[in-house]
Design a protein that fits this description.
Layout lengths: L2 H20 L3 H14 L39
Length: 78
């Protein structure tokens, strides 16, 4: 999926969310809820993080990672 396609999908999602917020028809809201349940995806559920889930994300750490950035010396404890 290209960048433009992804942006169009995100714009469509935002438009649908805004439309649902204004929706007053309870039958239609129930139908939308049924579609959500049938999709098998519960996007509102937050999955707890598991230890080690970030392993392999950082593949390189600079040699001067712990060094004080230039111009910040006056803020450092002596």
């Amino acid at each position: 999926m290209g960048f433009v396609e992804a942006m169009n999908i995100e714009a469509l999602k935002l438009e649908l969310i805004q439309w649902i917020l204004l929706l007053q028809d309870t039958q239609l809201l129930n139908e939308i809820q049924n579609i959500k349940e049938k999709s098998g995806k519960n996007s509102t559920a937050i999955q707890p993080r598991k230890f080690g889930c970030g392993k392999g994300i950082f593949t390189h750490v600079a040699d001067d990672f712990d060094a004080t950035p230039p111009g910040f010396e006056e803020y450092m404890l002596s």
